[in-house]
Amino acid sequence: MVATSELLDAFGAAGYRLTGPRRALAEVIASREDHFTAEELLAESGRRRLGLGRATVFRALDTLTELGVVERLDLPTGEHAFVTCEPTHHHHVVCSSCGRSTPISDDGVADLAAKVEASTGYRVDTHRLEVFGLCPQCSPES
Amino acid sequence: MVATSELLDAFGAAGYRLTGPRRALAEVIASREDHFTAEELLAESGRRRLGLGRATVFRALDTLTELGVVERLDLPTGEHAFVTCEPTHHHHVVCSSCGRSTPISDDGVADLAAKVEASTGYRVDTHRLEVFGLCPQCSPES
DNA sequence: ATTTTTGCAAACCTTTTGCATGGAA
DNA sequence: TTCCATGCAAAAGGTTTGCAAAAAT
Q: Which of A78, A105, B6, B138 is the most exposed place for a label (fewest CB within 10 A)?
């Protein structure tokens, strides 16, 4: 969950132009609070008559991913989805029922990386953690 | 890294038939010590004149994944790859230079899952950790 | 004016499916 | 002999690309 302006600022700060399609897309993304696929954004943009081209959506997602305001997830089903995120958080729990996602701090994971270095001898430089489960709203006893 | 027979046993134990193509594929997989994609197995099977069909490779990988002797990875590049693994280990460090992979015990990760439950209220049921780095052989100072 | 960005459509790549044939049990 | 597994080729997804037109700086 991120404001439209944060997405636009990310484009601006990195020297990308603030075009109509990018503004439109930023709004579509900001209006979602769970994860989304490129195809979903495309469909939504069609519904709202924003007329975004497929290529534009993919290119923008790519850019936003590089800028760190969006992150690509690989769901257990193999689908590629995206979530918006603060540049400092690096992981998410995603609800397997409603798709909502919540950031997790990287602390524990960093420790883990250190352990891995110690036990395997690898020089770790990237990691990706994806946690799936039921969010409080979707839990049976809530 | 896994023996051909382990792969075959997995098929057998689960009630799948031990067919020629499955034997052939098991050997191709066993001969690889790093991760591999479906396409690579296909290419290798072509080179060895094993004549495996594309569908067969995908179906077999799917089955082996369900049986837990193979695991699907999503590399940072977005590629889908597979590694063989013992059914009890659930994570890997993979070398970004040579592709070799080493299993990591799940211990620390399980703790992490508990922390996540506590801090977010999610009921965690699956997680996926992928760690990337340089293996000892590919490290600059080795 | 210059350079980036867009949309379109086609190309691409990977994975899946339908179905008749072949092979295991 | 029965049912599972295979191969083929086509279909289906999802993502990328080339290029001329449009928009931002």
A: A78
Burial class (CB in 10 A: 0-12, 13-18, 19+), A138: middle
Determine the average pLDDT of the residues in A127-133.
Answer: 88
Residue of B nearest to A140 (CA): B123
Note the pLDDT of residue B142.
54
What number of C-beta contacts closer than 8 Å exist between A and B? 117
Give the H or E element holding residue B127.
Answer: strand B123-134
pTM: 0.83
Is the minimum CB–CB distance between B97 and chain A shorter than 8 Å?
Answer: no
- A66 touches B: beta carbon within 8 Å: no
Q: Which domains does chain B have, with CATH numbers?
A: 1-86 (1.10.10.10), 89-137 (3.30.1490.190)
